Amino acid sequence: MIYILFACLIILAIILKLPTVKGFIGEKAAQMILNKLNREEYHTLNDLLVPDSNGKTTQIDHVVVSKYGIFVIETKNYTGWITGTENSQYWTQTIYKRKEKLYNPLWQNKGHVNALKALLPEFENARYIPIVAFTGRATLKVTVSSEVIYLSNLNKTIRKHKQPVLTQSDVISIIKKLSNNNLQDKATRKEHVKTLQNENHNRNQKIRNNVCPSCNGKLVERSGKHGKFTGCSNYPKCKFILKDRVARAR
Fold first, then answer.
1. Rounded alpha-carbon distances, angstroms, from residue 247 to 126, 201, 203
2. Residue whose C-alpha is closest to residue 30's, from 12, 13, 14, 45
3. H/E element holding 139?
4. What is the pLDDT of residues 81-136, one digit of tens each?
5. Is the pLDDT of residue 206 over 80?
6. What is the DSSP string of 53-101?
7. Of 18, 19, 58, 129, whose CB neighbour count within 10 A is largest?
8. Can the peptide bond before residue 105 be classed as cis, meaning omega within 30 degrees of 0?
């Protein structure tokens, strides 16, 4: 019986380390926090899958609609130190001496905002407030001007915006349109995941072939103030830099 219990604990630990499971836990934690907002003022939509401007789909963790604007929230459930800048394509996750890369979540969330703008062109006065919220498992060491916060500060960050830009009628119309365009059938959602997996595979395949995944230029060895590194030959037009392994991004 003890061995069975021990085996179950090991399996549970492995499951909890899976990226999809960790992401799900982070999203649910954010959802619980957002539920504490005044529901008469703030209307939350979770796990939206909507068409983007490129004819594909984009998945958005949370959208909060209020008369103060449209809050577009990307949640991250990472451990270790998270370092990066506003304009760097990839950030770095450091756990002891091991480093991995993650696609800049600000860039990721910018894609979400653009998809919403394309979906809601009639609301020209809408203010979009992108927020990237990390759970407390991470230590943020980023240099940014955008809202990159800990999940515990999410509602405080939302409530600090107090300038109305939308009418109540606008808010109702936006919620209705987002709900109607939320793609919920399983086949579409599976296809979305498959597309992301293929894009990630193609990106890594290009890197293995010394091809820049951003512009298809050649990856070459270059020298900088911190020593030699691998970057794109099309610099400064393309600022892609290869550092360690590339983590998957949604």
1. 33, 11, 11
2. 45
3. strand 138-143
4. 999 999 888 899 999 888 888 889 999 999 999 999 999 999 988 999 999 999 98
5. no
6. TTSSEEEEEEEEEETTEEEEEEEE---EEEEEESS-SEEEEEETTEEEE
7. 58
8. no
Show the tokens assigned to 210.
């010394």
Helix (H) or strand (E) holding 103: strand 98-103
Residue 74 and residue 84: Cα distance in Å, rounded?
Answer: 16
pLDDT tens by residue, 228-243:
778 788 877 786 777 6
C-alpha torsion angle, residues 41, 108, 132, 135 (rounded to 10): 120
pLDDT band at 150; cut points 50, 70, 90:
very high
- Each residue of 174-202: pLDDT tens digit? 999 999 998 876 665 566 455 555 556 56
Spatial neighbors of 74 by CB under 8 A, at least 6 apart, are 60, 61, 105, 108, 109, 112, 130, 131, 132, 133
pLDDT tens-digit readout, 15-58: 344 445 544 666 788 999 999 999 999 999 999 998 877 778 88
- Check: CB of residue 93 under 8 Å from CB of residue 236: no
Element (H, E) at 114: helix 105-119
Q: Which two tokens stand for residue 88?
A: 């760097």
- Give the pair of three-digit tokens for residue 115: 């998809």
Q: Position 59: which residue type?
A: Q
Give the other-Cβ count within 10 Å of 115's Cβ: 23
